Backbone:
C-alpha cells in the first residue's frame, strides 16, 4: 500500500505541475483568490495558514436550491483547481514573510513580531502565480492572541459537536456533507450561549480563547465560518485537515493523528492555559481526549462529550472516560451538555445568568436546578 501511495502521490504532483505549466503558457481561465484561515499567535509570534484557489469554488448556492444544486456546488469545491506555486506575502506590524503554495494550494506563514492581545488583522497579498493576468490581490487575515488574563482555553470539535451532521449515521452524514447552504445546517440548542458564556468566563473583562479542531476538510472552511456567524457561535482559530493525497495517506489523515497533533500544538503554544475539551461520541473524541490527559497532566480540567451514538458505543465512551475521571478531570457524556453547563457554573467558569440562558435554549425555558 505504501508503494501505491507513493506512486499515486507522484502522479498527482506531476499533474499539478503540468497544470501550472499550462496556466503559465496560456494564462488564467478564472479569477484566483487567496483565502486566509483564522490563525493564532502569542506576544511575539504569528501563525497564519490559507490557500490559493480559483474564485468560482466560493460561489454561494441558491438558498433552498435542492439536492442537485447542493451536490453540484459541493463537487465543485472538492474538485477545485488549487493554485500550486503561488507567491503569497503576509504582513503585520512592520514584519512580513513570503510563502509559496504547495501542490494542494496551501501556504503556512510564521511571523516573528510583537503583537497586541485579542483579535488582530494581518494583510495577506497574492503576489503572483503562473499565468497571472489579474491585479495583485490583498485581503485581511485574522489571528487571535489570547489575552494574558485568560483563565481557560476551550478546544472544540465541529461535526456533531457544534453542527448536527449525523456522523454516527452515515446516510444522514452524506446528506449533510452535500448540503452547501449554511442557513440549512442545524446548530445544537444551547451550544451558542454556552460557548459565549465560556468565552466571557465569570464576568471577567478578558475573553477566554476557543479553538476549533476538526478532521473535516479545509474546503468547507468558509461554510463553517458563515454557519458560526449565523448562529452566534464565537469565532476562534481553526485547525482543519488537508484531504489531499500524499505519500503517507490516501486523501485524508487519520482522525486521531490530526486531532492529537493539533491539540498538542495548541497546548504547547499556550503553556499557561488550562483547557476544556469538547467533542462527540460519533468518532473517537473520548479516546483522543483521554490520551491528551495522559500527555498533559493536570492542564485538562474537563472533557465534555455530546452523545450522538447508540448504546454499544456509549458503553465504550463511558469506559474510556472513567480513566480521565480518575485523573481528576470533570467528565460528562450527555446528549445536550446541560449537566456540563451546570458543572461549569458550579466551578465558576460561567455565571448563573449564563447558565439560565443555556438552560432556556436547551429546555425551552424550563430551568434545571443545580
Residues:
Amino acid at each position: 500500500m505504501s508503494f501505491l501511495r507513493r506512486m499515486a502521490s507522484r502522479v498527482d504532483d506531476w499533474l499539478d505541475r503540468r497544470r501550472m505549466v499550462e496556466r503559465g503558457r496560456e494564462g488564467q481561465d478564472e479569477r484566483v483568490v487567496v483565502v486566509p484561515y483564522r490563525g493564532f499567535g502569542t506576544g511575539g509570534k504569528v501563525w497564519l495558514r490559507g490557500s490559493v484557489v480559483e474564485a468560482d469554488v466560493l460561489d454561494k448556492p441558491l438558498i433552498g436550491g435542492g439536492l442537485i444544486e447542493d451536490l453540484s456546488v459541493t463537487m465543485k469545491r472538492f474538485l477545485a483547481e488549487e493554485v500550486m506555486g503561488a507567491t503569497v506575502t503576509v504582513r503585520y506590524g512592520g514584519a512580513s514573510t513570503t510563502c509559496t503554495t504547495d501542490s494542494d494550494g496551501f501556504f503556512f506563514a510564521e511571523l516573528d513580531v510583537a503583537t497586541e492581545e485579542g483579535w488582530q488583522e494581518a494583510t495577506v497579498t497574492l503576489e503572483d502565480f503562473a499565468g497571472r493576468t489579474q491585479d495583485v490581490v490583498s485581503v485581511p487575515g485574522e489571528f487571535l492572541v489570547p489575552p494574558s488574563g485568560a483563565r481557560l482555553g476551550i478546544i472544540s470539535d465541529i461535526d456533531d459537536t457544534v453542527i448536527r451532521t449525523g456522523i454516527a449515521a452515515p446516510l444522514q452524514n452524506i446528506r449533510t456533507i452535500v448540503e452547501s447552504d449554511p442557513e440549512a445546517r442545524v446548530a445544537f440548542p444551547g451550544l451558542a450561549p454556552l460557548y459565549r458564556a465560556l468565552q466571557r468566563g465569570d464576568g471577567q473583562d478578558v475573553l477566554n480563547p476557543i479553538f476549533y479542531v476538526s478532521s473535516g476538510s479545509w474546503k468547507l472552511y468558509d461554510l463553517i465560518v458563515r454557519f458560526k456567524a449565523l448562529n452566534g457561535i464565537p469565532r476562534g482559530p481553526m485547525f482543519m485537515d488537508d484531504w489531499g493525497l500524499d505519500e503517507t495517506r490516501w486523501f485524508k489523515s487519520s482522525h486521531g493523528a490530526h486531532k492529537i497533533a493539533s491539540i498538542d500544538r495548541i497546548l504547547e503554544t499556550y503553556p499557561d492555559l488550562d483547557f476544556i475539551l469538547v467533542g462527540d461520541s460519533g468518532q473517537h473524541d473520548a479516546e483522543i481526549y483521554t490520551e491528551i490527559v495522559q500527555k498533559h497532566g493536570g492542564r485538562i480540567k474537563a472533557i465534555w462529550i455530546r452523545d450522538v451514538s447508540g448504546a454499544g458505543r456509549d458503553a465504550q465512551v463511558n469506559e474510556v472516560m472513567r480513566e480521565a475521571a480518575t485523573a481528576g478531570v470533570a467528565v460528562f457524556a450527555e446528549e445536550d451538555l446541560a449537566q456540563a453547563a451546570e458543572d461549569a457554573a458550579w466551578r465558576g467558569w460561567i455565571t448563573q445568568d449564563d447558565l439560565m440562558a443555556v438552560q432556556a435554549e436547551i429546555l425551552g425555558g424550563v430551568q434545571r436546578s443545580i
User: Anything to note?
Assistant: Confidence is low (pLDDT under 50) at residues 365-370. The radius of gyration is 21 Å. Residues 2-26 form the longest helix (25 residues).
